[in-house]
Design brief:
Blueprint lengths: L1 H7 L3 E6 L4 E4 L1 H7 L3 H4 L4 H4 L2 H17 L3 E7 L7 E11 L5 E10 L1 H19 L3 E6 L4 E4 L1 H7 L3 H4 L14 H14 L1 E9 L5 E12 L5 E10 L1 H15 L9 H18 L3 E8 L2 H8 L1 H18 L5 E6 L2 E6 L4 H16 L2 E3 L2 E3 L3 E8 L6 H17 L5 E3 L2 H20 L5 E10 L5 E12 L3 E3 L1 H10 L3 H21 L7 E4 L9 H13 L6 E6 H6 L1 H13 L3 E7 L6 H4 L6 E4 L1 H6 L4 H17 L2 E4 L5 H10 L3 E2 L10 H9 L2
Helix pairs in contact: 12-13, 13-14, 18-19
The structure holds ligand C2E and magnesium ion (2 copies).
Length: 671
């Protein structure tokens, strides 16, 4: 009977004598430890199990024998190649009549599964309560059974206020019936629903949440619960809104950006085409903004942009749109505007900009160039209108500061020319369409070569040979002058080096430098590299700057020039007398040479003024130890006057036109 009791028990049962030999095991023991009664009886643990198990059992058995009482423990058993199992064991002594222990009985229950469940529960609870997302669980009738900590935090309701209630307590009233209907439909058909829902916190605040609801079914397929998981969406929506704002607005001024402006113009086109109205587009570009930015710094530039935005806004009527396209470019859409009204508006804007603006210890007088065009006269779609207003703005810039300019048919053609020119100019340098000519510079007393000036030409694929006047002004406006000038400088130096290798020594080389190249120190880096790589004698190379380029930012130009000077280069001021600099300024720049502009040379014989200018320039240059060279000498009369004035060097058609390198070498060097 006892045997059968034992064998049908859930427990794993064994009896050991005091020396640790097994006296009895039940069938559960056989099964659990994968042994047979024959193998076990009379053996010790050491003969049956691993060292670890043996030690563990031995220690516990010993304790029971010593204390004479029952001992409960968790035994972790790892049999070979099997996951660990957990036994809940009770060991107790069997006592003889004299009270001595003669056997130890062990009964163990396998609690592994129970343990794992407990662990899982513990984990689930942890996740449930620590989750950043709100969780609520309802029964099949949508009565709330439990909510987590995040739910309480996000909704403001306590556990007591929610348990037993319907999730309706959260409804904001902002949601349509349809959304709840589609939610329930999805839950019933696919078992889950996900979407954005506006709910109400206990304090009345309405907030967006991202909600996922899942239905839970029992094994029979009947829905027993719903689990709702939601996160507060407010922050996400706010950053989404911000991203949308930034995508359509300029961050600095808060004005619409180009893409939003284009949208507004599209809408205006649609409206105006229906109502047969006209409207105007302004393209506004601040004058000299770059100079302010470069000299006073970006913060000052930003400050000016904000001020200018404010002033222009004040001029506009409600319903007009002003946008910033980046940099110092703005655009304005004037709804329902006649030519007269647009004209007046442009003047009003010019007036309001003119007021001085305080920037620290400096006063700035902002001004802008404005290009204006009209729908439908100057274009029937937003892109064309903007492009044409832009062209008109360029034209306004060309006529000086403070101007506004209307787009016209003549301008249209000029624009098309300009755009196609820009396009092909971009490719010119890459496609070997640019080349250099060299114009000799001579000692006017003996006509000996003292140097050459390199001058760029463009072999245009369709238009043929183009002179600098036909593309340099364009290149300056579109920012392409920099790469062209750089190309010319490199090419000039390489020519000089090539001749040098052939034993042909050029007494001097003059290279024209544009204003843009003075903005940064790249010119310095480039020249330093050319001199080193080509092993050139820097003192035979002269860089020609125009007055306007130097005057644009005197302080900065000075530091660039100083660097160039330290490379050993000569510096020359080109077309002297045509800009607005005075001779005083010459002292600021460590100049080596002044080139008297062509227009003075041309008029020498006719105009006393021209003679006075030339004479003065020569005298002052001499007193400052600066060389003088007269440009554009075409006839002997001019030459004679210059000689009388003490001018030593000259350049002009009288001596030679700009000529190809080979011709230069043959005619002037190999004689
Ligand atoms: P510039 O530097 O003052 O060059 C002198 C211009 O006067 C040249 O015109 C030359 O052909 C012309 N010239 C020379 N002698 C006479 C003369 O006796 N009579 C007349 N009427 N003209 C004469 P070009 O080559 O058309 O160049 C015009 C301007 O284009 C140059 O004026 C210069 O500012 C610019 N330029 C030319 N090549 C380059 C270049 O490689 N880089 C840069 N940045 N500018 C260049
Ligand atoms: Mg020049
Ligand atoms: Mg010149």
């Amino acid at each position: 009977m006892l045997q059968s009791f034992m064998n049908n028990s859930d427990s794993i049962i064994s009896l050991k004598d005091l020396s640790g030999h097994y006296e009895f095991i039940n069938s559960h023991f056989e099964h659990f430890y994968q042994v047979t009664t024959q193998q076990v009886l009379g053996k010790t643990d050491a003969a049956l199990f691993t060292h670890e198990i043996t030690e563990d059992f031995h220690a516990k058995d010993l304790e029971v024998a010593k204390l004479h009482t029952a001992l409960e423990s968790e035994d972790i058993i790892t049999l070979s190649h099997q996951p660990a199992r957990i036994l809940h064991s009770i060991r107790f002594p069997l006592l003889a009549e004299d009270g001595e222990v003669y056997s130890i009985c062990t009964q163990s229950l396998d609690v592994t599964l129970h343990h794992e469940d407990e662990l899982r529960m513990h984990l689930a609870e942890h996740v449930f309560n620590r989750a950043g997302v709100g969780i609520l669980v309802t029964d099949a009738k949508a009565t709330i059974l439990t909510v987590n900590d995040a739910f309480i935090r996000l909704t403001g309701f306590t556990e007591g206020e929610t348990l037993g209630k319907n999730p309706q307590i959260l409804a904001s009233g902002k949601q349509t019936k349809e959304i709840y209907q589609s939610m329930w439909a999805a839950l019933l058909t696919q078992g889950w629903w996900q979407g954005e829902i506006w709910n109400r916190r206990k304090n009345g605040e309405i907030y967006p949440e991202w909600l996922t609801i899942t239905s839970i079914k029992n094994p029979a397929g009947k829905i027993t619960n719903y689990v709702g998981i939601f996160s507060d969406f407010t922050a996400v929506i706010e950053s989404k809104k911000r991203i949308e704002f930034l995508a359509t607005h300029d961050e600095l001024t808060g004005l619409p950006n180009r893409s939003l402006f284009l949208d507004r113009v599209h809408q205006a086109v649609t409206r105006a085409s229906r109502s047969q109205h006209t409207f105007a587009i302004f393209y506004v570009d601040l004058d000299d903004f770059k100079i302010i930015n470069d000299t006073l710094g970006h913060a000052a530039g930003d400050n000016l942009l904000i001020e200018v935005t404010h002033r222009m806004r004040e001029c506009l009527r409600e319903g007009d749109t002003i946008a910033r396209f980046g940099g110092d470019e703005f655009a304005i859409l004037l709804e329902d505007s006649s030519v007269n009204e647009a004209d007046m508006m442009a003047s009003r804007i010019a007036e309001s900009l003119k007021r001085p603006h305080d920037m620290g210890n400096q006063k700035v007088y902002p001004s802008a160039s404005v290009g204006i065009c009209f729908y439908p006269n100057d274009g029937s779609d937003a892109e064309t209108l903007l492009k044409n207003a832009d062209s008109a703005m360029y034209r306004a810039k060309g006529t000086g500061k403070h101007h506004h300019y209307f787009f016209t048919d003549a301008l249209r053609h000029a624009t098309e020319d300009r755009l196609s020119m820009e396009h092909s100019l971009r490719k010119a340098a890459d496609h070997n369409q640019l080349f250099l000519l060299f114009q000799p510079q001579v000692d006017i007393n003996n006509r000996r070569l003292v140097g050459v000036e390199s001058l760029v030409r463009w072999n245009h694929p369709e238009k043929g040979l183009l002179q600098p006047q036909q593309f340099i002004p364009q290149a300056e406006l579109s920012g392409l002058i920099d790469p062209i000038s750089a190309w010319a400088a490199v090419e000039s130096c390489q020519n000089m080096a090539r001749w040098m290798r052939q034993g042909i020594i050029l007494p001097g080389l003059s290279i024209n430098v544009c204003g843009d190249q003075l903005r940064s120190f790249t010119l310095v880096t480039m020249m330093r590299q050319l001199i080193l790589e080509l092993n050139l004698n820097a003192s035979t190379i002269t860089l020609e700057f125009t007055e306007t380029a130097l005057m644009r930012d005197i302080v900065h130009a000075q530091s660039v020039l100083r660097e160039l000077k330290s490379l050993g280069l000569r510096l020359s001021i080109d077309d002297f007398g045509t800009g607005y600099s005075s001779l005083i300024h010459l002292q600021h720049f460590a100049l080596d040479e002044i080139k008297i502009a062509q227009i003075f040379v041309k008029d020498l014989a006719l105009s006393p003024d021209a003679r006075i200018v030339a004479q003065t320039v020569i005298a002052i240059a001499k007193s400052l130890g600066i060389a003088v060279i007269a440009e554009g000498i075409e006839n002997h009369a001019q030459l004679q006057i210059l000689q009388d004035m003490g001018c030593i060097q000259g350049q002009g058609y009288l001596f030679a036109e700009p000529i190809p390198g080979d011709e230069l070498v043959n005619r002037f060097i190999k004689r």
